[in-house]
Design a protein that fits this description.
Shape of chain B: elongated
Number of helices of chain B: 11
Transmembrane segments (chain A): 16-37, 119-144, 165-191, 211-230, 237-258, 312-330
Distance between the termini of chain A: 28 Å
Number of domains of chain B: 2
Shape of chain A: elongated
CATH class of the largest domain in chain B: Alpha Beta
Distance between the termini of chain B: 12 Å
Structural class of chain B: alpha/beta
Largest sheet of chain A: 2 strands, parallel
Largest interface: A-B, 28 and 29 residues
Radius of gyration of chain B: 24 Å
CATH superfamily of the largest domain in chain B: P-loop containing nucleotide triphosphate hydrolases
Protein name (chain A): ABC transporter permease
GO molecular function (chain A): ABC-type transporter activity
Number of helices of chain A: 10
Oligomer: heterodimer
Strand order of the largest sheet of chain B: 6-7-8-3-9-10
Helix content of chain B: 25-40%
Number of domains of chain A: 2
Number of strands of chain B: 14
Keywords (chain A): Membrane, Transmembrane, Transmembrane helix
Radius of gyration of chain A: 28 Å
Pfam family, one (chain A): ABC2_membrane_2
CATH architecture of the largest domain in chain B: 3-Layer(aba) Sandwich
CATH topology of the largest domain in chain B: Rossmann fold
Amino acid sequence: MSLFTAESRRLAKRRLIRWAVVAGLLVLAAVAVGTFFTNQKVSPATVAAAEAEATRSWQENVRYADEERARCEAAKGTADAGNFPPDCAQITAPAREEVQTEWFMPATFDFRDQFDSTWLVFAAILALVAFVAGASFVGAEWSSGGMMNLLLWRPRRLQVLGTKLAALLTWVVVGSVVVAGLWTAAFWFIALQRGTTAKVTPGVWQSVGLTGLRALALIVAAGVLGFALASLGRHTAMALGAAVGVIVVVQFAVGIALDLAEVKFMEAWLIPTYITAWMAKLYTIEDYNSCDTSGWGGCVPAKMEITWHTSGWLMLATVVLVLVPALWTMKRRDIT
Amino acid sequence: MMRRMSAVLEIQGLEKTYRSRRRGVRKALDGFDMVVEAGQVHGFLGPNGSGKTTTLRTVLGLIKPHGGRMTILGREVPASLPEVAGQVGAIVESPQFFPHFSARDTLSLLADAGGVDRIRVGEVLELVGLRDRAKDRVKTYSLGMKQRLAVASALLKNPRLLILDEPANGLDPGGIREMRSLMADLAASGMTVVLSSHILGEIQLICDSVTIISRGRRVAHGSVADVLASNSSSTIRVRLEAVSDLPAAAQLITGVGAHVSVENDHLLVSGLDRPAFVTRVLAERGYWVSELAPMAADLEDVFLQLTGTAPVEGAHRQVDQSVAVGAPAAGRWGQ
């Protein structure tokens, strides 16, 4: 327990970790503030204004259609006739109900429909913070000689590394839960002030909770990955370099290469697809190359569905594939 | 198995081999033996790359050996290292600390990790002279101050065995003297100290016993006096009143069977059982001796001789160019 306490203190004292946490919180706060100012509460007056605007737009369309039809009639028998359909009656304005009032409504935050999607931003930012914190927490220990000093005091390597990881994950979970609470409260407040909290049933809260849990799992996995990669390379830069390498080389290069090769369901090779699927429970990739656009009426492209189960197994496998070698090398490699 | 109860650290036949595709096979430790008795200040000497730090890291569980046996405080290591680690304080090579933590933070975190009362932090900071800079970040420290902090971290546990690798590195002359005094005080308090250093004058002053390692093997060990005595020659230095008489005097002494080397202002004579015989031979021919003194070897001479690392004019010795001794005798546990 004393080692856990010491590692918790060490974690809190690390400057890079403090900065990463502050930066992450500032970005989250900016998202919430931005959402607050880009949404507004819908009143009967707002709805009336939107309906008036929709009517004005429909009338504009009717006038434009009339003018076009007149030009069509005038062009008959001239060289300009090719620019219009043979039957000028085909030029018609949309019906009033086709110009929807919602198009002219200001943005308003509907907690029931929109809050779930904010978890993706929350998870992505905190996962990045957890990755950097995990990498720095163990990487700086190796590169500064702190790990060697610690092992002179506690010559049980796996216990030392395991306790470090446990301290990291404990505080990542505690911090994430606290921030998730604040995040939910902030968006509830936004919905009250700039939107609506109508129809938020217990079922909605259950869905919010489950999405939040998946966000937490993603954050924890990112922390473990950063920690394990830095432990393998015995330097923070190892983890950060690996992350940059994966993003630049694998994601961009592979993405471009697969796109050029017109590979079917190219997005299935990209990490963000699986992160989105994990958070949204389902991500559908559509292959537009399979769509025949030669005829009228469009087509239905071939689809591939990535579920949160697939993403979950992939995430678990990645964590195991990196963490197990990190533990093995900790146990076996000389410390020089 | 016989084991002397007073031995705090015993190493027998320690082996460590490094293999790499580029450099091939290199034996860092080749059957190395070492014994440190309780309450001693023990010097651990060797040229660069001879295996000192590898030995210390192996003893402390940082490197896995390929052979041999080690005990600390009578317990086999590395198997029992977790049980004895609380009684062993160590610094290995250059002091390394997280640069953005203060000395007090660094030590209090170690104290927490090791279950040591934090009150001890202030005590060791006082002991190594860092009390007034304890709240400064380590990155503002000089090498000597980091060295003091490293010693403080090793002393934090109030260990029974203190292992210090180059503790005087970077210290100013006052600091070196303080370190010497500290070592003496610690030894007097019953602590056993293993001291690795290249400052041989210091080792000779403060150590009770030494082990000299060269190319992974022990080349000399025992009390400082014994090592000096067993490796000193019976050479004597002879000065005459008139320097111009040196060639003739050399001829006379050579005539009685001694080996003589003529230096600028004196002769070096060896191979005589009784140095007084020189006085008699020269006095008989009217040459007056102004000085007749035995040449006392110091630890540096012995070290250079045993490890074959004395500088040679016009030659540039490379690291690893030191003396290799014969194969180690087997089964001398505790010798």
